Amino acid sequence: MDFAEDPDHRLIREAVREACARFPDEYWAGLDESHTFPWEFYAAMAKGGWIGIAIPADYGGGGRGITEASIVLEEVAASGACMNGASSIHLSIFGMHPVVRHGSAELRQRYLPRVAAGDLHVAFGVTEPDAGLDTTAITTRAVRDGAGYRVTGRKVWTSKALESERVLLLTRTTPAGECAKRTDGGFGYATEYHVERYWREARLLKIAPIPQEMILNYLAEHVLGLPRSY
User: pLDDT per residue over 48-103, tens digit each?
Assistant: First the structure.
């Protein structure tokens, strides 16, 4: 197996890194302080075509895949933009992929060109009060009602909801009680490929003899001089 980096992927990394270099730590710190959406950064990423990288070329996108989109987000986060920068664009990149894969021709034509151009902001409605990000536990339902659907349920922590015109909403069309059940509990990693052993030992180093949180508490108190937090 060849693990050498694809030349196109390297070019994507370099180009995104160069674009992000125009937005230093002070830019992001100021936005964090003022709770402001990074409009200048978003416009630069849209102008560079990065927001539409995974949208087919027929709809104005870059025609690349999720691998290339992941490289874009990795470089954005690594630049110092972190979650503030990544969350401003990743919903338009990944959140619209179901439309790319499963949307009707009319739906694709209506929304994808605007998303690729950066003109249409899209939020992704996943998180629920009683399910968090465990999508197997969501209860929001969509029931056919004439030509459309009637949706009942609750969503919280919907990133970019204030900036978005549309929300790609994750719902159930079949009640949870009527769906196949997942298997809870147990330790189902395959021992014949050593996955279980490596996973167990890797995690042990992270949680024993004290949890990571206590290490961070110690460093905060004794290195940074912050008040004791436990």
Answer: 999 999 999 999 999 999 899 999 999 999 999 998 899 999 989 988 889 999 99
Query: Do 49 and 72 form a contact (C-beta atoms < 8 A)?
Result: no
Q: Which residues of 26-37 are buried (b: 16+ CB within 10 A; e: fewer)?
A: ebbeebeeeeeb
Angle between helices 66-76 and 82-94 (to 10 degrees): 160
Residues in the chain: 230
Judging by DSSP bridges, how do beta strands 141-145 and 122-125 pair with one another? unpaired
**Amino acid (one-letter) located at 12:** I
Q: How many CB atoms lie within 10 A of CB 155?
A: 21
Please give the Cα distance from 77 to 23 (Å, whole number): 12
Q: What is the pLDDT of residues 165-196, one digit of tens each?
A: 999 999 999 987 887 765 555 555 566 667 66
| Domains in the chain: ranges and CATH | 1-120 (1.10.540.10), 122-176 (2.40.110.10), 191-222 (no CATH)
What pTM did the predictor assign? 0.74
Distance CA 13, CA 21 (A): 12
- The DSSP bridge pattern shows strands 148-152 and 122-125 to be unpaired
